[in-house]
Design goal:
The complex is a heterodimer of chains A (316) and B (295). In chain A, 77% of the residues lie in helices and 0% in strands. Chain A is mainly α and 316 residues long. The longest helix of chain A is centred in the C-terminal third of the chain and has 27 residues.
């Protein structure tokens, strides 16, 4: 959770270079692996970036972020199922996430540390039970399947590549929003609140208000990501609101590197590719992911990107 | 709902409450004294049930020896976890304990699933009630399964004993001193690090004990702890984190409340505990029995 050790000038060129490399990778990705998996990486990548906005930059470990991803997924599926266009469905999902995030955030950001984690987890679980019961809208145990994806502006969404490149554009918008938030005065204040709440309060900031705003922004981006996930798969199941999903996004972020914006995307890619390999190799997924999680927490807390940046900083 | 049904619901609620109480008590002991949020508590509860089952399969051990042996074995595993893994995270943000134990949960659940599938060719197995506890007991106004009554009474006794040891005995005083001010306690010649390990092992043993008790009621399966741990977390937040008395009272109370709620309006049963938690957070952010300085 430490701030990046890069100097400003070097940071600028570093950023531009990283951005170009990442853009290139993301552009060719669906041709290297298959498009559905590539789109999953975008959706979970954006989800992890949104989570890191809260965890890495405000120090709030939400253990219930599946709530926003999941609520948005259901809302998006519902709208797509009721004949709405893709952009309306995606925005509707985002809006649903924001609407649910406001009261949850209001109740939970007053608590700190581990309390915050447990409270967010419990709220997410409440929504998960709601999703199970409210079968008219969520399909309960069966979920919602075979959702229509109306075409848009000459794009044929039955084609995986078209879906992927549309999703990449949405991802880019979301990632840029996160980048702007983190680099803005607001983002700097968040870090200040994280590092020393008493001091931030004494110079006139209201920590609670900043945290709530960060919470809602994070939920909005998680919602956008959840909407992308449903758009990519055409199905939504109870798994989207499960606490395992909440844990998974934590793992992706941690593995990639907290407090770095590229890290979570890398982490999401590593986890999803690993899971893909494991499922074809017929190895038990839970054992391997659990082990990776434990080892990351014990020995690799700065994650892939964090470690890389630390190494670069020591060299430079 | 007639009175008799109502009493049965209350008793069923007390049975569920017994598991909430035992689990949240273990969490409270571990959190209150060591500041560790043990997400793996649910998996260790499952492990208690599984070890009891495996002891029966491999050595033909019955319920009573398992009730002693399984918590000891799982408690020993807890000691190994504290020494080998959790110890490395002391001094860091407590979030890392939560994350590590979350990873352990995934690991343990799937390892047990593999073991059950490969060794016993099942993913869920029933566990039989000991002869002495088969049947129903007449409580005067209603008949209630003897085993379930036993669970309520046994859990209550264990909870009270734990509370008594920590709050009222010399050993408890040493433990509290060791965790509240390690440096000074160390200066008195007390091996703090050993007490920390013992407390963690004790908390884990409590979870395993709950698992053995639960095995005949819910049968043994790898994910039996995964939903329970989330509800237990809500119970802990309602009761006030780290409060030993709070976790016991709230555990039983929430069990009864959920049972009554589900009898009156079934769809709400599972959400009721979380609604309650939201209300408590609004009115008393530190929980019903929480201490204001707890952070």
């Amino acid at each position: 959770m430490t701030a990046l050790p890069l100097t400003r000038g070097r940071g600028r060129t570093g950023w531009a270079l990283t951005l170009i490399v990442c853009a290139a990778v993301l552009l060719v990705l669906p041709h290297v692996i298959y498009p559905v998996l590539a789109l999953d990486i975008l959706a979970f990548g954006l989800f992890a970036v949104a989570f890191d906005l809260l965890f890495g930059f405000s120090g709030l470990l939400s253990f219930g972020h599946a709530a926003f991803w999941g609520v948005s997924a259901y809302a998006t599926a519902y709208l797509l199922g009721h004949g709405q266009s893709v952009p309306v469905a995606l925005l509707g999902g985002l809006l649903a996430a924001v609407l649910i995030a406001w009261p949850i955030g209001f109740l939970s950001v007053r608590s700190i540390g581990i309390y915050f984690s447990m409270i967010t987890l419990a709220f997410a679980q409440m929504l998960s039970f709601l999703a199970l019961q409210w079968t008219d809208v969520t399909g309960g145990e069966n979920g919602l399947q075979g959702l229509a994806r109306p075409n848009l502006l000459g794009l044929d969404f039955s084609n995986g590549f078209h879906r992927y490149y549309f999703a990449l554009a949405v991802f880019a918008v979301g990632f840029f929003a996160a980048y702007r938030t983190v680099r803005s005065p607001f983002g700097k204040t968040l870090v200040a609140v994280r590092d020393n709440e008493t001091r931030a309060r004494s110079v006139g900031y209201s920590p609670t208000r900043f945290k709530l705003t960060a919470f809602v922004i994070s939920a909005a981006l998680s919602g956008l990501a959840g909407a992308l996930f449903v758009f990519g798969h055409g199905v939504v199941s109870l798994e989207v609101v499960s606490w395992r999903t909440s844990g998974e996004v934590v793992m992706m972020t941690l593995l990639g590197g907290t407090g770095t914006l590229f890290g979570p995307v890398v982490g999401a890619a590593v986890v999803l590719l690993l899971r893909d390999v494991l499922s074809t190799a017929n190895l038990p997924v839970g054992i391997v992911t659990g082990l990776v999680f434990v080892l990351t927490v014990l020995f690799f807390r700065r994650g892939v990107v964090g470690t890389l940046l630390g190494w670069l900083a020591r060299r430079g | 709902m007639n009175t008799q049904l109502m009493f049965i619901q209350v008793f069923n609620g007390l049975v569920n409450g017994a598991f909430f109480a035992l689990l949240s008590l273990g969490l409270a002991v571990i959190f209150g004294l060591l500041r560790i949020v043990n997400f793996a508590h649910g998996a260790l509860y499952m492990l208690g049930a599984f070890v009891a089952f495996a002891l029966g399969q491999a050595l033909g051990l019955g319920f009573w020896p398992a009730l002693i042996l399984a918590p000891l074995l799982v408690g020993a595993l807890g000691v190994a976890l504290e020494r080998g893994l959790l110890r490395r995270l002391y001094g860091l943000d407590p979030s890392y304990n939560l994350l590590l134990t979350f990873g352990l949960t995934l690991l343990v659940q799937d390892v047990i699933k593999q073991v059950m599938l490969s060794r016993y060719a099942v993913s869920s197995a029933p566990y039989t009630i000991p002869q002495e506890l088969v049947g129903a007991t007449n409580l005067g106004f209603v008949f209630f399964p003897t085993y379930r009554l036993f669970v309520i009474v046994f859990a209550l006794v264990v909870c009270l004993a734990t509370w008594f040891v920590i709050e009222r005995t010399r050993v408890g005083a040493v433990i509290r001193a060791a965790t509240e001010n390690p440096t000074v306690t160390q200066a008195f010649g007390i091996d703090v690090s050993r007490w920390v390990t013992i407390v963690f092992g004790l908390g884990v043993a409590l979870a395993a004990l709950a698992g053995v008790l639960a095995a005949p009621i819910y049968s043994v399966e790898p994910y039996m702890g995964s939903e329970l741990i989330i509800v237990t977390f809500a119970v802990v937040v309602i009761g006030g984190m780290g409060s030993i008395l709070g976790s016991v009272v709230t555990g039983f109370a929430v069990g009864v409340l959920v049972a009554l709620g589900s009898a009156l309006y079934p769809p709400i049963a599972n959400t009721l505990v979380f609604v309650l938690m939201a209300l408590v957070l609004l009115l008393r952010p530190n929980g019903l029995f929480g201490l204001p300085e707890a952070k």
